[in-house]
Amino acid sequence: MQEFKEIFDAYGADYESTMERFMRNEGVYLRFLDMLFQDGSLKKLGDALQSGTMAEAFEAAHTLKGVTGNMGLTPLYTAVCRIVEPLRKGEDGEDYATLYQAVLEEFARAEKLRSSLKCAV
């Protein structure tokens, strides 16, 4: 069985700096990671993009950016950043559906990460 750190690193995250934020307690980290999947920001982002309410889309994406950054979920954070910045600037020409799909895909990867990490603890 892989160790927590190995799984975390293989996902593309920075174990050391992330665990510093969580007092080097992997159990605490997992409790916060669970909360990410209970948060409604991803759904809010999708709903807002679909309805064209870009201010709400930005708010949801910005929330996800902060949470995923603090959680050290670098691949998911990067995908979220790609949608946050055009929303921040109010850019109409962006393919938000494609950017959102990339966020969904990374969110699915983060869910697999969570499952793997739980097996390692």
Write the layout of secondary structure elements.
Layout: H1 4-11, H2 15-21, H3 26-38, H4 41-51, H5 54-70, H6 74-89, H7 96-120
Helix pairs in contact: 1-7, 3-7, 4-5, 4-7, 5-6, 6-7
Number of strands: 0
User: Roughly what fraction of the amino acids lie in strands?
Assistant: under 5%
Poorly predicted runs:
none
Mean pLDDT: 95
Number of helices: 7
Give the helices and strands as they follow along the chain: HHHHHHH
Q: What does this entry show, briefly?
A:
The chain is mostly helical and 121 residues long.
Describe the structure.
This protein is an all-alpha fold and 121 residues long. It has helices spanning 4-11, 15-21, 26-38, 41-51, 54-70, 74-89, 96-120. It has 7 helices and no strands. It is elongated, with a radius of gyration of 15 Å.
Properties at a glance:
121 residues, mainly alpha, elongated, 80% helix
